[in-house]
Here is the input.
Amino acid sequence: MLESTFFNALLWGFLAIAVITFPLLWFVTAPYGRHVKPSSGPTVDNRLGWFIMETPSVIVFFLCWLLGNRPTDPASLLFLGLWQLHYVHRAFIYPFRLGKTNKRMPLAVMTMAFIFTGTNGYLNGRWLFALDAPPPTITDPHVLAGIVVFLVGFAINQQADWILLRLRRPGESGYNIPRGGLYRWITCPNYLGEIIEWMGFALCTLSLPALVFAVWTVANLLPRARSHHLWYKEAFPNYPPERKALIPGIF
Here is the structure.
């Protein structure tokens, strides 16, 4: 089988799963974080789970760049840099910022995420560094606009995570109401930031796999934001009523 045939089948199948995932997660809350239940099955340490499930994004995408047709092209280096800015942090820094807790992650969630990140890394990396037409110049308007959008999303995501990580005092394991930054208006600015990031990456690359990834990000994180928002409203009677789940003033 030609790689192009395999690639296209995988890409469209990946998109189809995203379309199915959205309504599924809308009605069934995924068992992660505060939503983990004893019935969720075997679990692993939360930090280990994060490390394992995010690492394929770093390694697979890097190998696609290294073994691609244009590793020294400025646009290729730019795309590599943006991708790794997010995923090196997510795989090798963020898990160890969580500190020592007793939190566990379902093994099934970690396994599915591991498969997702490996597949997504291959689809995006192989397309950008080998299968697509020659890359754009880094001064093209859509590239510059995409960089700005990506970095705005990254900054929102980082600030939101920083606020969450400072909510608990050493030794605490419960939940508190986050405040500050975009938490003034929405429950999940970390998710909003990540959605903005990958929309910016899709704009920057004008890549079909990147667009599919942006669709996947919305399909995954929008229902999660809704679940988190409902959980906070139920857990905290004094939860700020003006807050929306994901988009200020709208949803």
Summary: The radius of gyration is 19 Å.
